Amino acid sequence: MNTYDEVTILTKPIQIAIDGPAAAGKSTIAKIVAEKLSYIYIDTGAMYRAITLKALTEGINMASNDEAGQLLSKTEIDLQPSGDGQLVFLDKKDVTEAIRSQHVTKAVSEMAAHEQVRQRMVELQQQLADGRGVVMDGRDIGTHVLPEAALKVFMSASVEERARRRFEENKKRNILTPLEELQAEIAKRDKMDSERIVSPLRQADDAIFIDTTDLTIAQAAQEILKLAEERLL
Ligand SMILES: Nc1ncnc2c1ncn2[C@@H]1O[C@H](COP(=O)(O)OP(=O)(O)O)[C@@H](O)[C@H]1O
Ligand SMILES: Nc1ccn([C@@H]2O[C@H](COP(=O)(O)OP(=O)(O)O)[C@@H](O)[C@H]2O)c(=O)n1
Question: Which ranges form a coiled coil (predicted)?
Answer without folding.
Answer: none
